[in-house]
Amino acid sequence: MILRGRAWKFGDDVDTDVIIPVKYCNTTDPQEFAKHCMEGMDPDFHKKVKPGDIIVANKNFGCGSSREPAPISIKALGISCVIAKTFARIFYRNAFNVGLPILECEDAPDQIQEGHDLEVNLDTGEIRDLSIEKSFKAKPIPSFMQNLLRDGGLMNHLAKTLNLRRI
Amino acid sequence: MGMTITEQILASHSGMEKVTPGDLINANVDIVMGHDLSIPEAITKLERIGVDRVFDQERIVIIPDHFTPNKDIQAAESCKRMREFARRHRISHYYEVGEVGIAHALLPEKGIVVPGDVVVGGDSHTCTYGALGAFAAGVGGTDLAAAMLTGMLWFKVPESMKFVYHGKLKKWVDGKDLILHTIGDIGVDGALYKAMEFTGEGIEQLPLSGRLTMANMAIEAGAKNGILQPDMVTVEYLKVRTNRPYTIFRSDAYADYADVREYDVGRIELQVAFPSLPSNTKPISEVGDVPVDQVVIGSCTNGRIEDLRVAAQVLRGNKVAPYVRLIIIPATQGVFRQAIQEGLFEIFLDAKAAISTPTCGPCVGGHMGVLAKGERAISTTNRNFIGRMGHPESEVYLSNPAVAAASAVKGRIANPEEVVKS
Questions:
Q1: Averaged in consecutive runs of 10 residues, what is the pLDDT profile of chain A (167 residues)?
Q2: pTM of the predicted model over 0.90
Q3: Scanning A20, B23, B192, B278, which has the fewest C-beta atoms within 10 Å of its C-beta?
Q4: Could you give the angle at the alpha carbon of A27 between the alpha carbons of A22 and A28, nearest 5°?
Q5: Cβ contact (<8 Å) for B49 and A67?
Q6: What is the ipTM of this complex?
Q7: CA distance A131 to chain B (A)
């Protein structure tokens, strides 16, 4: 799958309280979460993002709480993918479980600048910065996680395994 | 090659003789915990695939602790949905307001978690139970739903890091200072995806409460789990709390660690974490003049009876500084009752502290002490991220209960030695 969008840059240790404060988590409506995505850094972030845009961050993205509204808010806002040097582990699981593609890449975040046009190939892990015509290689997604994504997240994977209705 | 305690527990729960870091395994789960924010998420996921059942109603624990007593209509609706689910499935470990407490204080207190267990919880601080020699990890709503339905969950076996604490603790220094110092040393991703194994005679001196504090904050270094070797302190703690049989696992002498770090606890001062990361720590002697508007003593990190005793020791005969709010939140009803029986409430009330029923409340900026723009708090909680306790332009400093209590008296971050005449 090929994703295309503009880069939005963030630094180290972007935590879940910044991605979505807990006061907005008392619902299960993804569109409500989306309105507050990244509010702790930029209250107008949700107004600026266009569908397909890509978040590029440094290390330990999504640290802190286990709240699943964090990846859900990003996905519901239309962000197609998050690229970071590393992800916090609960965020990493949650992202796959809710079907938000994420890629770990050591080099790309240092060179990609805000507003650059990016193209991401999820199958090969290739990240292309079209603005500076550079290409980066993300860590491959483990095949177990690829299966989860292919099935549409963990619940669908379970539904398939347990022979239940799919979402 | 031997196995660490974490690897042994994961192997025993996945029908394997041996597991190695990096292995993807499917493990049986002994206890699945969720609260008023994560359980409603999990129920939604279960509804979407059209199932309304759980794997074992005796092994699921449902705890209304975050926005309870219901802070607003939305919270009330979430709790109602969760309560109806608990009733419908006859969840044996459902605790209503009036008997509930903060999950990570309540589950150990009730003897629900035992050594050798695999525990998952829809809360990042689920790692707290590692203090009992269990493998415990936080998960999101989807993983929670999957575990509630199947009693199993996939894990990647983590590498382990060993933290060895030597020496004798200084006065007022406790588990909170050891873990803040450690996170300050390795950073908020210093143990990313890894198990943090805490060991050494510095740990053996700690009561179980201090060990729970340490395991609680493993997540603040990015860890998958924090874990301690059970000893006589653990066995004594469990004796009056549970009849459930348990297995004590022990890291092999020749187990493999990604890193080993050693600390002389005799050189660790009282610690304060400055905004807005738990790793931004300074020893108390380097804090300087930091006035505070609010002080919170409580939470899953430091709301146990031992914490309240220390706070009382500092507050006895003292008063909270003018225009400063001190909010004390016993973590469970059991702690609340014990504090009354020991006369701690008298001391708190004389000092002009507000005392709240158990709740996570202010720690997550939920209720019971939310901060305004520009306000500053020192708190015994575990996170000081931007906006954690309220307005994005408020600030949170983290410390142990003695420093927090002394700071309430002085109206600025203070060393308990300034307040207690010894």
A1: 95 94 86 94 95 97 95 96 96 93 96 97 94 95 81 86 64
A2: yes
A3: B23
A4: 115
A5: no
A6: 0.90
A7: 31
